[in-house]
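Hey, I'm writing a tutorial for new members on how sequence and structure tokens pair up, and I'd like a real worked example in the thread rather than a made-up one. If someone can provide the structure for the chain below, I'll link this post from the tutorial.
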Amino acid sequence: MADIIQLLPDHVANQIAAGEVIQRPASVVKELLENAIDAGSQSVRIIVKDSGRTLVQVIDDGCGMSTNDARMAFESHATSKISQSEDLFNLRTKGFRGEALASIASVAHVELKTRLREEEVGTRVRVEDSDIKECEPVQCAVGSSFAIRNLFYNTPARRQFLKSDTVEMRHIMDEFQRVALAHPGVSMSLHHNGNEVYHLNAGSLRQRVVGIFGQKHDERLLPVEEETDVVRITGFAGKPEFARKTRGEQFFFVNDRFIKHSYFHHAVSKAMEGLLPQGQHPMYVLFLDVNPSQIDVNVHPNKTEVKFREERAIYTILRAAVKRALGRFQVSPTLDFDQESSLNIGMPDKDRPIREPQIQVNPNYNPFDSDRKPSTGLGGREGGGLQTGGAGSWREVYKILDDERSRQEQREMMPLEQEADHVAHEAPVFQIGRAYVVAPIKSGMIVLDQQCAHERILYEKYDRNRENVESQQLLYPQHLSLSVSDHDLLKSALTELQEMGFDIDEFGRNDLIVRGLPADVAQQEPKELLDAVLVELQTGRQAADKGLNRVALGLARGGAIRRGQVLRPREMRHLIDSLFACEVPNYSPTGRPAIVTFTPDDLASKFE
């Protein structure tokens, strides 16, 4: 049998590696930025065209490379960071595998210009299909300039899997933010299609956070600092009252390397237990300084997953550090007593004694004796012994119950198609647990999840009946200051938002001004509604897979009645009536049940 095992050509092996390392333009930005930081740069400039499809250029003022190093940099596993396996457990640099440039060069046209500080002339290298096409002297600035053009030009299938320009640019901004936060002492800028997206001067971590997320964050930051033999923790946690439904402002760094760690995220959330509104996420930028020998970063090609030897101990220390920061700045939970609107207890006048109510009881009162005159009972009202919700006597109570039985008999004779309309207008309705609305129907009873039902109503209105959406002007227009990425996302949906009832315009570089809201949700805060839209625009992959309108879904979720909200009978009837008018009344837009029906047989089975 002939030999069948053979070595892969270098360009094929590099393309396979690129599948792990270079998944999209943001991957190129990440790798080149980290190389620039490792080169000791004090200033880094990123230029992007067409969200990285056409060009990604990273210019730094780092140490630069010699001619030989510039050629070697594109070889597989060529690195200056490690020389033996033991070095993997003492890493302080960003990159170390030496695969990034080789992988990039296998799927793009690459040009490098670089010069050492002590040299007068630099080197220009041009690479295509992993082959060095040109290497020549060139006049250039100290440092390195990498220009990556036509990404995935030779792998069209990979190029087709890229998302829209908006999505790809957001991924680029995410990578930029992570490196920028980890190195506030480095001046950094990002340009897209000729427009400056970020311009960050070197400064403190607080200044860097404010520069990325906006001036509003300055008052929201709580310094966190803790030092033990296991870990040193520094950085900031956001005040709980400014937590958001959207993710994206949660950053962990280990030895200045961004990581994702759900266990440590739980530690921060646990520290704020009782302070965070349900379903909201705290903002934090936290740095963990750990002995490199106690961690393993060589877990995933993106190096965002890290294993810790003392993971449980770090969890405990992290939670305590955040709690201590909350206590130091007197952030504590407030008690919210939810009073019924009919209960109004005033404070007594200190100069006037408190008098006990005078209650007169007629021991000879007989509620069934119609010949007796009604006596004066509590508070001077007529009717004798017990007052029951406006009924003058027990005989009136029985009359109410008898009338209800008569209405029930009429409902049993009612055609089925009229049943929903009758529920909404005549039948008694009530609320259970401030979350579910119950109403009788001919075949038993229905139970509505008030939040899911209202989400369905609002979604269909915004998605299918926009011509019926009315806008209500705010008494005072609201000015919202957003991060660059959030502003760009909402800007991409601005036309849809306006069609759905928003009176909203751009105001300044990264700000919006809201003058009006859809009338159905005008009682909501504009920021809460737009945060809900951002959640869907950022993470609503499931919604997109189901063919749902993300903007309409975000507005429906942000404006819907919440569980825990008390509804008046008129509001409950209107909810039922509006739900039955929907095209798909049984489910919320994302498929959760909105209605459950109980028949007498269902109830009988509960009683065996």
